[in-house]
Structure formats: structure tokens, C-alpha cells
């Protein structure tokens, strides 16, 4: 999704904005732009379709010229990716510049009104409409100052936005606003930073304000940060947060891609997610978020898990875990479907939202609906203080650290870790999981980081060799049963999103109800076949595939013979309880997708058309 960077202070604004945009590249984008105030109260804009480096090629003359500026990476919504549609956009009088993340839903009506007043538009964007609406309010009454005009305009629009606006007659001033899309303000010593997340300014300051929904701020060196509500203009005293993010966490540390780095971080990220929660020696799971609301969970009619994409796959495994160990009925819903199908929700329901970014618009909207209906809302987010984390009644962070690669890897295994902890904790508490089983399961869970470490070292080279044989594949099937059916869905999603090879995940037994028709000697089939978990049935499925000459890549436990003998390629992983096996089995599948994509020359960290946090519905 779009990335926003702004700066006002004493340093070269060009360098700060361009480096900030580079940090936000992971969000996914198709064009980039910058605007600076050149010291003579003139705005200078450069923008282009393409990457930040393309912007650098056309804008380096701006270097050293300004102490205030802002930049944008655009992920197209209204209007194709093009130079014209790129941000920043200027108002008709050329005095105002805006950058925007989100969608102005009523832009058409406003555009018609402005056109009637003589305004013209150079782009197809909703954003250009907004900046002209601000000009309109300033033109209407000479007394209306810049921040007031922004506020008037924001009161006229609906949709989702994070905006930053500059006015050439207001040197040193940035006006920002937020509804639905995130925006952080970094507070330095005689300098201020604006960004979609803290990564562009983390090396300059550790203090930040996360602008709240429906708030705007006027930021200037003279008067600091003045925060108001957009509707009432009421003054807000902000909470200044201390950032825990470090520069090292958001750099590649010698890996070729963030995705590979994040795959290799999983022993640590899973361990960090359990740290302080899973206390094996004491035989307890400590999770304040669950414990403080244990009666809500205990008395829940059902648990509804809502999420999108990879997080939805984690939710499916969560369903298996919670139903097996806590015996509470669980439904898993795509957030985008849940919201629009008039679901039955009562105040006896518990809704668990899973989101790495904590900003996914569909998940957010579904949560708001469930909240309105009185359900208890629990969040599983990776990004601390994200929008979803803030609207939930309670929650648990996955402490996976920043995930920069667009394809989710370590966030997924961390989500599975949290869901395992929740299921075991609830099961133990409500008496469905006996003490002996509980103790053995927590010991097994505690051993998972080491098992991931073993898988990474034992399969890394092997998977690279397997990947080489499938660089030209056009289709893939991923099969699994039980807990590993969602793991198969996730394996297929990883491959398709970064390599652009069509891939489908299926429950292995369903194969004979359709997909078996696709199998011939050209069809690679990844099959997840750990010992614990319907192994004999999987053996039959492999036989069915081999009878049709399909190419089997099997993920099996160390020392496996039966499936291995029938398979063309074998990836061995250590044994664990069936319920935790997706955490371990996912790791070689992530590597497989990664290396196939790398060998095909794909942009692994920023796959085409995808965004890291999807802040539009
Ligand atoms: C796939 C992927 C997406 C996200 C989905 C939800 O690798 O990353 O499918 O899982 O967009 O995002 P979050 O978890 O941030 O709500």
C-alpha cells in the first residue's frame, strides 16, 4: 500500500524523504514522488511511475535544496499507475501539495462540484480532488488559514485516508490527518518526521506519536505538534510512545532478501512469541490477555476467527487446535466475506482477529461490525499499537519482529504459536485437556524453535536443488490432511504470490473429487505427510498420484520410508505432535517458494501487484 514520508527540520529534506521512501518500499507500490519547498516559498515536485530509484534518477537536482518536504510511494487504486497519477498532487493554484494513502469514496461528487466552480484535474485520482477541495475552502474565505481549510475538507470526505499536506505560503508547516490508514509522527530535536510507520525515522528519534483515528495535526518548528479532532477541532494531548524498533531489525543483515532473512529468523521469532508465556518448568501458560477474560472465553457460544490471506490460513489451524483441545466451536471467516453477508453475531461470541500488520482494512471493518453487535474482540497482531491492536478488547502480540518481505513467513509461524498457546491454555482451564497431555504438549511446543533450526540447516541446500528443477513449472498442487491441509494452502499461496506460478492447495482426500484430473507427468505435487496425522491415508493419496505419473515432492518425518520410496523428491523434517507439525512443515515450503521465485528472477520482497499492508477494502 501507499507509503508516506514527510520532514521538517534542519537536515536535507531530500535525503530524509528518499531514504524514508526506500524503507517503505516493502509495503508494495507502483510509482513514487517527492515535493520540497525550495527555500523561496516555491514547491518543486518530481514524480514517476516505477521505483524509488527511478525517482532518484529524475530528482537528484533537488538534493540540498530544502529543509521541508514530503514523498510518496503509490499503490494504484483510482487510476492506472502513471506519472500523472503519482503523488504528490498540486492544487490548481499550485500552492498546495498533498500525498495520500487510502480511498476517498465520495470523490466523484466533490469533483463534479469543483468542476462546476472552474477547477480542472490533471489526473484520475481521488487525491487531486481532495487537494483542490482544500484550495476551494481557502479561496472561499481569505480568513480561512491552511490547517482550517484542511479540516473543512476532511469533514466533507468519507472513506479512508492518511494525508500530509504542504502549502507554499506556510513555510516549515506540515498538516496531516488520519482516518483508517496509519500515520506516525517522529519527534526529534528541532525536527519532525511523518511516516506510514516508524521505519523511515527510527535512526533519528525513538519518540513518536501515532495519530489516532479522526485526528489531524499541524506540525511546525515554531509551534510543535498541535493535534485536533477533525470533526470538532478539539485539542488533544498526545501520548508520546518510546519506539522499540531498531535500525538493525529493519535491515537485511547480509541476506539477499528480507524474505530469506525472515525465514531464517523463525527459531527466534517463535521462541520470542512463547517467551514469558510458556513456562514449561512451572507447567503453565501465562497469557494475561486470555486470563483476564477467561470467563468470556469459557462461556463463549463459539469463537469466530476473522482474517485475510496467510493470517486466515493460521486461523484455520487455530480452529483445529481450539476445537481439539478446548472443545469450543470455532468458525473461521474471510474478513471481507464476513462483513458483507449479514452474519449472526451475539454478545456471547468471541471474535479473534488475526493480522500481521494490524492495519488490514477488511479485518478492521469486520471487527468493527462484530464489536457493534456486542461480541468480545481479541486481537492477534504483530505490529504493536497498530489500528486493530488498538480497537480490540484484549489480545496477544506475536513478537515476531518487523516483517518486511511482502510474503508473510515468520508472522505466520508466530501466529500458529500464539494460537497453540491459546488452545492449550483454554483446554487446560476448562478441563478438556488433562494435565499429563497438557504437560507433554507444552514440552513439545517448547522444542519447536530448535526443530525449526534443524530444518533450516538440514533442508536449505536440498530445497535449493529441488527448486532448480521446477523453475519452468506452470502449475503446482499442494496437498495435506488435518492440520496440514491449511499448511498446504499456505504453501501454495507462498509460491503463487512470489513466483507467479499457479498453485492450488487442497485437502489430500479431496483430490479425487476434481484436481486429480490435472495430474500427469508435468504436474508437481507437494504433499505434506508427517507420521502423526492420517499417514496411511496419505500413503494411498501418493499411490493415486504416482499411478498418474505426477511428480511428488514429499515433506516427511526423518527416517520415513513408505511415502519416501514412492516420491520423486523427499524433504525430511523432525517429528512433533500433529497439532504443531504445520509450524515445522511450513519452513521448507517457504524456502521452496523463495528459491523457485529467485531462480525465475522475480522480485521476491516486492512481488507485483501486492502490498504488505492492505489498507483499502
Ligand atoms: C501473504 C500475505 C497476505 C496477508 C494478508 C493479511 O503472504 O502476506 O496474504 O497475510 O494480506 O495481512 P495481515 O496479516 O497484515 O492482516
UniProtKB/TrEMBL annotation:
Compartments where located: Cytoplasm
Chain segments annotated as coiled-coil in the UniProt record: none
Any single biological process term in GO: protein N-linked glycosylation
Record's GO cellular component terms: cytosol
InterPro entries on file: GATase_2_dom, GFAT, GFAT_N, GlmS/AgaS_SIS, GlmS/FrlB_SIS, Ntn_hydrolases_N, SIS_dom, SIS_dom_sf
Domain of life: Bacteria
Any GO molecular function: glutamine-fructose-6-phosphate transaminase (isomerizing) activity
Sequence ranges assigned to domain SIS in this UniProt record: 293-432, 466-607
Reactions it catalyzes: D-fructose 6-phosphate + L-glutamine = D-glucosamine 6-phosphate + L-glutamate
Keywords: Aminotransferase, Cytoplasm, Glutamine amidotransferase, Repeat, Transferase
Protein's UniProt keywords contain Transferase: yes
Known role: Catalyzes the first step in hexosamine metabolism, converting fructose-6P into glucosamine-6P using glutamine as a nitrogen source.
Subunit architecture: Homodimer.
Alphabetized PANTHER family for the sequence: GLUCOSAMINE--FRUCTOSE-6-PHOSPHATE AMINOTRANSFERASE, ISOMERIZING, GLUTAMINE--FRUCTOSE-6-PHOSPHATE TRANSAMINASE (ISOMERIZING)
The protein, known as: Glutamine--fructose-6-phosphate aminotransferase [isomerizing]
Organism: Chryseobacterium takakiae
Name of the gene encoding the protein in the UniProt record: glmS
Amino acid at each position: 500500500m501507499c507509503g508516506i514520508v514527510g520532514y521538517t527540520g534542519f537536515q536535507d529534506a531530500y535525503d530524509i524523504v528518499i531514504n524514508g521512501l526506500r524503507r517503505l518500499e516493502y509495503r508494495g507500490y507502483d510509482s513514487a514522488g517527492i515535493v520540497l519547498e525550495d527555500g523561496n516559498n516555491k514547491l518543486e515536485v518530481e514524480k514517476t511511475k516505477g521505483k524509488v530509484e527511478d525517482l532518484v534518477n529524475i530528482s537528484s537536482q533537488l538534493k540540498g535544496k530544502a529543509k521541508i518536504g514530503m514523498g510518496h510511494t503509490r499503490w494504484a487504486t483510482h487510476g492506472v499507475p502513471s506519472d500523472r497519477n503519482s503523488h504528490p498532487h498540486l492544487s490548481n493554484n499550485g500552492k498546495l501539495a498533498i500525498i495520500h494513502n487510502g480511498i476517498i469514496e465520495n470523490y466523484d461528487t466533490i469533483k463534479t462540484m469543483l468542476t462546476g466552480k472552474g477547477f480542472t484535474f490533471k489526473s484520475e485520482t481521488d487525491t487531486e480532488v481532495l487537494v483542490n477541495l482544500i484550495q476551494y475552502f481557502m479561496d472561499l474565505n481569505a480568513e480561512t488559514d491552511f490547517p482550517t481549510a484542511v479540516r473543512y475538507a476532511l469533514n466533507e470526505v468519507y472513506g479512508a485516508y492518511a494525508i500530509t499536506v504542504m502549502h507554499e505560503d506556510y513555510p516549515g508547516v506540515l498538516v496531516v490527518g488520519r482516518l483508517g490508514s496509519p500515520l506516525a509522527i517522529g519527534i526529534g530535536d528541532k525536527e519532525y518526521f511523518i511516516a506510514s510507520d516508524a521505519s523511515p525515522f527510527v535512526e533519528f528519534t525513538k519518540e513518536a506519536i501515532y495519530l489516532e483515528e479522526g485526528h489531524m495535526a499541524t506540525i511546525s518548528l515554531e509551534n510543535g505538534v498541535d493535534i485536533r479532532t477533525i470533526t470538532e477541532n478539539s485539542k488533544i494531548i498526545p501520548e508520546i510512545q518510546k519506539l522499540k524498533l531498531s535500525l538493525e531489525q529493519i535491515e537485511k543483515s547480509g541476506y539477499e532478501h528480507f524474505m530469506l532473512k525472515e525465514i531464517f529468523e523463525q527459531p527466534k521469532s517463535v521462541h520470542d512469541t512463547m517467551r514469558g508465556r510458556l513456562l514449561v518448568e512451572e507447567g503453565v501458560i501465562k497469557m494475561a490477555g486470555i486470563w483476564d477474560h477467561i470467563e468470556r472465553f469459557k462461556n463463549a457460544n463459539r469463537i469466530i476467527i476473522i482474517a485475510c490471506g496467510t493470517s486466515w490460513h493460521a486461523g484455520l489451524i487455530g480452529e483445529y487446535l481450539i476445537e481439539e483441545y478446548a472443545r469450543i466451536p470455532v468458525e473461521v471467516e474471510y474478513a471481507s466475506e464476513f462483513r458483507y453477508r449479514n452474519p449472526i453475531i451475539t454478545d456471547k461470541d468471541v471474535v479473534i482477529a488475526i493480522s500481521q500488520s494490524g492495519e488490514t482494512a477488511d479485518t478492521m471493518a469486520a471487527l468493527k461490525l462484530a464489536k457493534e453487535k456486542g461480541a468480545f474482540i481479541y486481537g492477534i497482531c504483530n505490529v504493536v499499537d497498530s489500528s486493530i491492536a488498538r480497537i480490540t478488547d484484549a489480545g496477544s502480540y506475536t513478537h515476531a519482529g518487523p516483517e518486511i518481505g511482502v510474503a508473510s513467513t515468520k508472522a505466520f509461524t508466530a501466529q500458529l504459536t500464539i494460537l497453540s498457546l491459546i488452545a492449550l491454555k483454554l483446554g487446560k482451564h476448562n478441563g478438556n485437556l488433562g494435565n499429563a497431555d497438557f504437560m507433554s504438549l507444552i514440552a513439545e511446543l517448547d522444542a519447536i524453535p530448535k526443530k525449526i533450526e534443524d530444518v533450516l540447516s538440514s533442508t536449505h541446500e536440498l530445497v535449493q536443488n529441488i527448486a532448480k528443477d521446477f523453475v519452468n513449472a506452470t502449475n503446482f498442487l499442494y496437498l495435506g490432511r488435518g492440520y496440514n491441509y491449511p499448511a498446504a494452502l499456505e504453501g501454495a499461496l507462498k509460491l503463487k504470490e512470489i513466483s507467479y506460478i499457479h498453485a492450488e492447495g487442497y485437502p489430500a482426500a479431496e483430490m479425487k473429487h476434481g484436481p486429480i484430473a490435472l495430474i500427469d507427468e508435468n504436474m508437481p505435487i507437494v504433499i505434506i505427510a508427517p507420521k502423526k496425522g492420517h499417514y496411511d491415508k496419505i500413503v494411498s493419496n501418493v499411490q493415486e498420484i504416482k499411478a498418474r505419473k505426477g511428480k511428488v515432492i514429499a515433506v516427511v518425518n526423518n527416517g520415513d520410508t513408505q511415502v519416501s520410496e514412492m516420491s520423486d523428491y523427499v524433504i525430511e523434517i523432525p517429528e512433533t505432535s500433529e497439532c504443531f507439525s504445520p509450524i515445522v512443515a511450513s519452513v521448507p515450503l517457504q524456502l521452496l517458494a523463495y528459491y523457485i521465485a529467485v531462480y525465475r528472477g522475480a522480485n521476491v520482497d516486492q512481488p507485483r501487484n501486492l502490498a504488505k499492508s492492505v489498507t483499502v477494502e
